[in-house]
Amino acid sequence: MAGMATLAAGALPRAALAATPNLAGTAGSRGLAFGSAFDREIFDDPAAAALLTAQCRIGAIENSLKFDWLRPAGPEADFTVADRLIEFGLKAGLRLRGTALIWNDWLPDWLKWTGVRERRAIMDRHIDEVLTHYAGRVASWDVVNEPFFPMHGREGGYRGGYWFDAMGPDYIATAFRRAAAADPAAELVLNEAFCEHDDETGLAIRPLLYDCVKRLKGDGVPIHAVGLQGHLKPLLPHDYGAFADWVAAVSELGVTVKITELDVDDRGLPADIAARDRIVAETLSAFLGPVLKVRSVNEVIAWQLSDRYSWYRTLPDYPPGQKARSHLFDDAMEPKPATFAVETAFGQSAAR
Ligand code: 9MR
User: What CATH number is associated with residue 29?
Assistant: First the structure.
């Protein structure tokens, strides 16, 4: 692991930096699928569209399939923009992922005014309509996103919100069963954040998620994969080797595992760009090395390819003049140490 970190540490030979990366190709040579989140920027930015098409085999819709984006003002869904994104993705040859069908966060205000019993019907309708509409086009869904958040103080460590508060923990199994009925061919994924870290939240969520998957499997709930987001935070305590052992244990429950939202939180890292890029690259190497030894990890998806469309850039936490460099390509869509760290990790990973 130390050797890999050194390789990615900005000490890369010039020739390597000048080479054209081929992330999907290198991943594919090991039986691994690589992809990225994308959204409406691809309509107006041909460079973003071209980078996505060149580097990816999987495309995850970053926002436009979320409940609040499909139904911002009331229960009627508007699929217009999402349909254009899906059409683009399919033409680009991408296997498409939708996120998130059911998430207790980021829900529109109108849901607040619905009664508890009515909310179950709204959830069912949402799942039925969306999965039927995209059956055969969106191959994989985060059916439930971020089920746990112990800091919400709910018994069992669940994330609170309109769905949980209406149905309790059963909303998870209910959503998976409903999704399987609406699109029997879809891959159904339980997606979770924070597990990569040895801080209080990460250490609390790991066993909760493990037990949840075990229960779902034991009850015959149709869950095919676990998504682990991978918003890496180099400044938080972490032990990626121990994390990988836990990932292997999760997959032994009978699911594949995918890294669904890979990027590096560079808030608080040095302002100097070379130093920051080095830490971002080292973090990616240190994470992917052990994780990709686990053969049931079959997909890695970046949460946007380029810093230009980083969600971190919408956060207020950067000093003036400093912008996130959290992703695999820079602002100008050019490769940087992170690109080659990831490609190297793919090339060195165990064959699937
Ligand atoms: O990157 C997404 C950002 O543009 C949205 O405003 C936000 C709320 O919908 O969601 C971000 O993506 C999140 C993902 O859906 C779930 N895991 C955390 C991601 C980053 O916040």
Answer: 3.20.20.80
